[in-house]
Design goal:
This protein is an alpha+beta fold. Helices cover 25% and strands 27% of the residues.
């Protein structure tokens, strides 16, 4: 089972590129972020022709998450007890057999002390509480907007204590791991420095000046099923169609 996460930075703008990529890589479950469209405008038919059933939680112009799977889910999770998880479209889950899969788009945040900084911390508090209540086989795939360790950024001086690398932000990923989740890429590649996001400016992708902020986490009960993990840079290095500033992250499980 191939699971992928991809922040497309507008599903409509990236549809042709996404279709081309999905014809290259046989993904079973695709978690999307920043779809930036209402549910009625999501390209269900186009992705349906590639064999996907899409579960959508859209928002006009901002945010938006979706999960597209080859197998029809028997449950959708899109309502949460904490209102901060409901007010913006950043989290959706499905259940397939005995597996729960979540597409996650964490807030970007802002400089320390700003409103969006505090919002990010409150959102993560609610998210960690919710995830801590899940049991069994769980996959969390998405844009977490945090580079967990220094090796997850291209320059530890330039990117020291900035948005996405502040100690209090990184502590949330520590808490995920303490709650029994595994960073699939880091488990397979413990020392590899590889990124999932690059700024559009100054040719960052060609200089490989990026950050690893997109992850696939799995619960420890899933660890024995994990076969491989990778970051596919091909979509990010396209000149046409214009790519997202993110690229897909993939994990392979033997079920």
């Amino acid at each position: 089972m191939l699971v992928a996460t991809y922040n497309v930075n507008s599903i409509r703008a990236r549809l042709n590129l996404l279709q081309e990529w999905l014809q290259r890589v046989d993904i079973d479950i695709l978690c999307l972020q920043e779809t930036k469209t209402l549910d009625d405008n999501f390209p269900k038919e186009e992705l349906g022709r590639l064999g996907y059933q899409c579960t959508i939680l859209g928002q006009k112009a901002y945010n938006g998450v979706a999960i597209c799977s080859k197998k029809l889910p028997h449950k959708t999770i899109n309502k949460f007890d904490d209102e901060i998880l409901n007010e913006q479209k950043r989290l959706i889950g499905i259940a397939i057999d005995d597996i729960e899969i979540y597409s996650v788009y964490a807030p970007h945040g802002d400089a320390r002390g700003m409103d969006k900084y505090h919002y990010k911390l409150r959102w993560y508090d609610a998210f960690i509480k919710f995830i801590g209540q899940r049991q069994g086989k769980v996959i969390l795939a998405g844009d977490f907007n945090i580079a967990h360790k220094d090796m997850d950024v291209y320059d530890t001086v330039i990117l020291n204590d900035v948005i996405g690398t502040m100690a209090e932000e990184r502590a949330y990923l520590d808490r995920l791991i303490e709650n029994g989740f595994i960073d699939t890429f880091r488990l397979i590649h413990p020392k590899e420095k590889k990124f999932s996001w690059w700024d559009y400016t100054a040719g960052a992708i060609w200089k490989d000046e990026g950050m690893r902020i997109d992850y696939i986490f799995c619960s420890k009960s899933f660890e024995g099923y994990l076969k491989d993990a990778s970051i596919d840079i091909w979509p990010r290095k396209r000149r046409t169609p214009t790519p997202s500033d993110h690229t897909p992250v993939i994990a392979s499980f033997v079920i």
